[in-house]
Design brief:
single chain; five-stranded antiparallel sheet; 2 helices; glycoprotein; Pan_app; Bulb-type_lectin_dom; signal
Amino acid sequence: MILQYSHSIYLPLQPKKKKKKSQMTSRNFPFSLCLSSLLLTIHFFFVTKTLAQVPANETFKIINEGEFGEYITEYDAGYRVIRNEVYDFFAFPFRLCFYNTTPGSFVLGMRAGIPRDEDLMRWVWDANRNRPVKENATLTFGKDGNLVLADVDGSVAWQTNTANKGVTGIQMLPNGNLVLYDKKGKFIWQSFDYPVDTLLAGMSVKQNNKLVSRTSDVDGRDGKYSLVLENSGFNLYINNSGQLVNYNGWSGSGGSFIRFYTAPIDQDPKSAGWELLLETFHDKKSSPSPKPSPSRRSLLQSFPVGSGNALILRKLNYNASISFLRLESDGNVKVFTYFDGVPYLKWSETFAFFSSYYVRECGLPSKCGSFGLCQRGMCVGCPSPSGLLGWTENCQPPKLKPCVERAKVDYYKIDSAEHFLNRESTGNGQGPIKIEACKEKCSKDCRCKGFVYKEDTKKCLLVPVLGTFIRNVNTSTAYIKYNSL
């Protein structure tokens, strides 16, 4: 006799021998219980394995080896295209690659742009920016549905953590979203949920999450600038020796998510006019639903305009569907747009937060490096106790002695100057207060590197980081803390 039990698993049963009633009572129950437990265990094991597996012919293991691509990419990075017989990981113009900016240190990243563009190809997403891998590292997609980047020594540098979660396939979508999906097409994991320093059109940041800049073009690790969605807005911060300093941003967003996206002005994909937008919303599943712009606004509008829950960053006179917003390593926020309708130079900078058409360029903390005086977008001086010197990239703030209680410090002035923190969201400081009291506050505060004093309003702004000062014709004066000989 044969018993059939789910998924064609057959177990033979031996013919029963006649037993005395007392024997059957004492032995049959334990046997049935054990058999049931065994069958349930086998059933659970096979069903679980069936649900979790990726087809064997769609798994892969790709090794980081071979020749580099010959075309120029952003950050002057070398790259190796990731592909095999089954997967190409390409959806125009996005491609998955290993890339490096220093020898032997590779990041799994996404490139936007193709070699025939005769233009710089851009890097728009990183998987392992803070833990690069070496030559012969492996990218593996196994039957369990987990995508794993392992270094040459076998240590895991990055993974999607999707093992045994029902993943059946992987795909690069036309919008640059790398997805792992189940048998119903539901996304189990997607790169759009893990922005680093960049938002492709359609990507979002949720409240209390952030974009983090690169350290530099050469160093792709987390830098000192961040763009954070908070109750008060989409705020820009600089990390000053462990202290976060809010230096600008978009105030009053009031949403649980903020999404960067693009849309034709009249909702016609063939429209010549497109908008770059930031939309705030509470439900991540909600779709952008931009309204046609009022006809009174010119096509090439310069200044951002609010429209309902969307902020229009800029309007363009060509298709802007392939665009990305990025927090740059210098702390600026820029948008780049790809237009395939021209023979070369297909990437254009289409928006910059600190620029002539939005917030003044001198308001960028790093505009004049670690220290300097800026006027009309140019660095015009290096402040010193002896007065203004010519600005160079070597201009440095004063090096202060270790801060101790009642240690004597001096100050030198920068006339007609304000700080990048002198802005609407920060204000001009506390007051009214006398300048002597303002100076005393800074002298007692080890974090204070100087202060800005407004003679007209008697306001005092203590500054924890120097950076760029801005030439101003009003009654604002900056005072820089230093140790005299």
